[in-house]
Amino acid sequence: MKTVVTIARSYGSGGKEIGKALAKSLDVPYYGREIFEISRGDETGIFSGDDESINKSSFEEADEAFKQQAQTIREIAGRGGCVIVGRCADYVLRDMDNVVRIYLYAPLRDCMRRVIRLYELNPEDAKSLIHSMNKTRGDYYFHNTGLVWSDPVHYDMCLNTAGLDTKQCVKIITDFVNTKLE
């Protein structure tokens, strides 16, 4: 049975980029926003939204969308190894033995540098976006799990990505995954 790696991440910590590179390194599929599209019956990517926009809809619609995504996550993980970023995948797959749960974070100043560089924002707008996205992610996680998203007890490994490039993060995570599953 191949390993499933879930990655939760604070905004600006590089989680999506690291997740994609990790999937490539492990030679397994990567899933992030694609889970939303698959769960909505749109594997072509025509849907432009994601689960964060669902939070603005009614609780009933949001709950139904989460149930669909959770089912999609379980189906994907049941097929074999993969890397899943976000979508409460760590919680959804909590009873599976072949899952390694990772939480990536970085200090605010490092997240701001990344967000400013990627989106060409001024420092105040970057800071505001980071706080807003982290609040949205935390609220989404709490609404769907009843747990605190950034609490390290929910993860097998928490990694501060500050001062590390993507390749270094992938090596650290890969070494941890191999050690944990020996």
Compile the SSE list and pairings:
Blueprint: E1 4-9, H1 15-26, E2 30-31, H2 34-39, H3 51-54, H4 59-79, E3 82-85, H5 89-92, E4 99-105, H6 108-119, H7 123-145, E5 157-160, H8 166-180
Parallel strand pairs: 1-3, 1-4, 2-3, 4-5
Helix pairs in contact: 1-8, 6-7
> Which CATH architecture would you pick?
3-Layer(aba) Sandwich
Query: Which consecutive residue ranges, at least 5 long each, have pLDDT under 50?
Result: 43-55
Enumerate the strands of the largest sheet in spatial order, edge to edge or round the barrel.
2-3-1-4-5
Total of helices = 8
Radius of gyration: 16 Å
Tally of separate domains: 1
Mean pLDDT: 89
User: The biggest beta sheet, please?
Assistant: 5 strands, parallel
| Spatial separation of the terminal alpha carbons | 13 Å
Percentage of residues in helical conformation: 40-55%
Descriptive account of the structure:
The chain has about 180 residues and is α/β, with parallel strands linked by helices. The protein has one domain: Rossmann fold, CATH 3.40.50. It is about 55% helix and about 15% strand. Strands 2-3-1-4-5 form a 5-stranded parallel β-sheet, with helices on both faces.
Which key terms come to mind for this protein?
single chain, 182 residues, alpha/beta, Rossmann fold, five-stranded parallel beta sheet, 8 helices, 53% helix, 13% strand, globular
